[in-house]
Every structure is written in C-alpha cells, then in structure tokens.
C-alpha cells in the first residue's frame, strides 16, 4: 500500500487547516474572520467553511458583542475531561484553585503542556475583584514566556536556551515556583508545576496578579501559597 504524505492527502490537508484555525482562535480569541484569513493564507470562503465546521462540531462559538468574533466553546474542555477512570486533573484541581483564589483574592489558572512547548489554559478560578485578568479556557501561550510554562520546564529539568528565561527556570527549580511578569506588562504570574505519581510535570497552577496589586514584598508569601496548591493537587493525583 502506498504511504500518503500530508501534501498528497486532501483530507489530511483539510484536517490540518481546521486544526490551525482552531489554534489561532485559541491564541487570539475573540477573533474576527478578517483577522484569520491572512493568518491562514486561505480564501475568505474557505475560512468561512472551516469556521462553520468547527462551530457545528461545538469547538468554537460566536463571542458576545455587536461584531462577529469567534472564541473557543466549552466542548474542548468537556472532551478532555470525558470518560471514566482515575480522578481527572480538573476535578482534582478545582477545589484547590478555588481555595487559592479565596485565600489571595486573585485569579488562578490551570494550564497543561501542549505541542511545541506551548501551555493551554484548561480551567480557571476567577478573581472577584472588579479589576481582574482572566485568560479564556483554550487560550494558548508560549510556554517560555509564562510562569506556568517555565515552572514545568524547571520540574522537567529542561531549559529554554534563552539566558533570561533560563534564569527564571533556575530560580523556579530552586524556589519551587516561578514569578514572571506578563509580556503585556499588566500582570505578574506566579506558577508552580503539578506532577504525576512519577514526578513528571503534567500541568501548572498559576496565580495571576494585576501589576497594580502586586507588591514585591508579597512574592515569597504568594509563591508559598502557589506551591502548597500545586503540592495538594499532586498529592490527590498520586493517591488515585
């Protein structure tokens, strides 16, 4: 039987285009059709068909507002947590995340490693402050630029190859948590790795603090809270 390469298989090409569109929506949500067309380098009609397909499958939805913008729908999260068996990550993390949110007053993100060294937000416990920062579920970040991604690298014994980022990785390995200002400059992330029974990192829990409320003097206290939360989730996962 012949082995078909991706370029030779129209069906595979279609799947890859849809996956790329979903990835872009997750990274940039909410996003307009006009923004996706040049990024995907496809015709407007082709991108429209992809969006309709993803919407009908329940993977994306139209965000609220007067302008049509697309965002990730709840279905991907539900699919990740579907099935029976051991206690799932989300179930183990949810009460711990809520407790950390209530203790600190700040938003808590749960993210997992994705392809290409990226981190994907799979759950959050939202701050009750009027001023708060929340990444929608499905948001994709470059793991080398986030506290959670750098904490995962530290737990895995890996580095980034970038001197500045590797200083943060080394600090995370030493302290058990990583402190990383967001590239936007609006928030500070404090992240710690969650590991499985073998000690391999499987996720990260990140406290997201607006710069206006962050004080350097709180670094150690908040870092310890995040480490405690990661340790608690790790213990629950290991016990199942």
From TrEMBL:
Coiled-coil intervals: none
Domain of life of the organism encoding this protein: Bacteria
Domain IclR-ED, chain residue ranges per copy: 75-239
One BP term from GO: negative regulation of DNA-templated transcription
GO MF term (any one): DNA binding
Keywords assigned by UniProt, alphabetized: DNA-binding, Transcription, Transcription regulation
Domain HTH iclR-type: 12-74
Keyword DNA-binding among UniProt keywords: yes
Listed name of the protein: IclR family acetate operon transcriptional repressor
């Amino acid at each position: 039987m012949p082995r078909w390469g991706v370029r030779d298989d129209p069906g595979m090409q279609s799947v890859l285009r849809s996956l790329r569109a979903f990835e872009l929506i997750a990274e940039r949500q909410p996003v307009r059709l006009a923004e996706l067309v040049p990024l995907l380098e496809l015709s407007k009609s082709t991108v429209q068909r992809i969006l309709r397909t993803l919407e009908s499958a329940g993977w994306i939805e139209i965000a609220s507002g007067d302008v049509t913008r697309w965002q990730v729908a709840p279905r991907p999260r539900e699919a990740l947590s579907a099935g029976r068996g051991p206690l799932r990550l989300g179930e183990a993390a949810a009460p711990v995340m809520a407790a950390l949110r209530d203790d600190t007053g700040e938003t808590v993100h749960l993210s997992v490693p994705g392809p290409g060294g990226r981190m994907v937000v799979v759950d959050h416990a939202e701050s009750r402050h009027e001023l708060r920062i929340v990444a929608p579920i499905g948001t994709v970040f470059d793991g080398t630029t986030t506290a959670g991604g750098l904490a995962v690298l530290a737990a895995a014994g890996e580095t980034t190859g970038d001197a500045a980022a590797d200083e943060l990785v080394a600090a995370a390995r030493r302290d058990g948590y990583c402190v990383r200002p967001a590239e936007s400059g609006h928030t500070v992330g404090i992240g710690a790795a969650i590991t499985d029974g073998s000690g391999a990192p499987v996720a990260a829990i990140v406290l997201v603090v607006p710069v206006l409320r962050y004080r350097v003097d709180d670094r150690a206290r908040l870092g310890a809270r995040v480490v405690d939360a990661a340790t608690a989730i790790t213990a629950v996962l290991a016990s199942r």
